[in-house]
């Protein structure tokens, strides 16, 4: 997240660009953009209305376009690519790392992808086509095929001379990959060991063999988990036979983690994680209306439950005043459990082996909290309305609702995960419905039995 000074800086640049557009100072704006980092240009484009965005994009110099596109979010990148000719896209991706070039091409329709690939030279076409053959959210879709590999039977002196001939080392490269004659991945040779060990030692003597290659089919979430757990900077990507295909670097994993965080945050509101702030009105409205409709349906369900006890509510107005308390307590308690379970699922900490233990723990936590707050709310309500039976009823309803909130807060995300539905996207809506319905049913049902 940008700090306040960075945010102020971006706002100043935005104001300057918009003033320049109004004054037709295109040459000055183009020079100003050239002085910025590509990530800053991408952030500016994301922060501009679509009309101004197109004008500013036209002022970005061609040699910067590829880097800017790699930093822009999906929706903004797609909107910019729509106005680019295939050969312009090919030129923009020339010189980019394979994984960055693939990120751009994956946002294009299949027909346009083919045109862009046809516009590339044979070497670029071959390496990009290889990565495009893997799903976007897998290790194969993340990897860069531009790797430096060496053999295990050569000496460190030979490796040093080879690296001098190679001329340069790819960015964020801390190790070389070791392979055999058939290109089977064997391990890694940290660059620091080349400098600190005797030149006549062989690679096999100093290499690390316990860092296994990442299967190309592995999900990107699992890749991020491995990088986090092992504190990796780079990792080899291998096929089913163990052949070295490419590598993943930590900057790609940071992007995955960032996307996952944004996805979880936006999904809580039923929004797309890459939603363009300045997308067309009808496009944004159509995306949001679906979850508004779902929420309306659940609201009518809760209202129907309340309607079943209309006569009871008419006889005791205090019930209408206290109903939101029961629903609110259940909603908060349920969301706490839901958040813990969704986080555990995302990190791979929760599965069939420990789901029952977690469920038991959350129910016990719900029981303790429900008893504490049932006493507090019951006493307050009893003295407030001078009716201790009312205090007993609302206290019992809170116990029932908090226990159900703990139960369903744990069960719902696990069930949605099994159904291949994102728990962060649908869990909150389902849980809110459950806690409202159970809370109202318990409170009004008990009131019908003991108060009316």
Please name the defining characteristics of this protein:
3-stranded mixed beta sheet, 6 strands, globular
Largest β sheet strand count, sense and barrel closure: 3 strands, mixed
Number of helices: 22
Low-confidence runs: 1-5
- Percent strand: 5-15%
How large, in whole angstroms, is the Cα Rg?
A: 29 Å
Principal-axes geometry comes out as: globular
Query: What is the helix content?
Result: 55-70%
Mean pLDDT: 86
- The total beta strand count reads 6
Structural class: mainly alpha
Cα distance, first to last residue? 55 Å
The ordered H/E elements are: HHHHHHHHHHHEHEEHHEHEEHHHHHHH
- Arrangement of strands in the largest sheet: 1-2-3
Give a summary of the structure in a few sentences.
With 452 residues, the chain is mainly alpha-helical. It is built from 22 helices and six strands. Helix 3 packs across helix 5, helix 7 crosses helix 9 and helix 17 runs parallel beside helix 22.
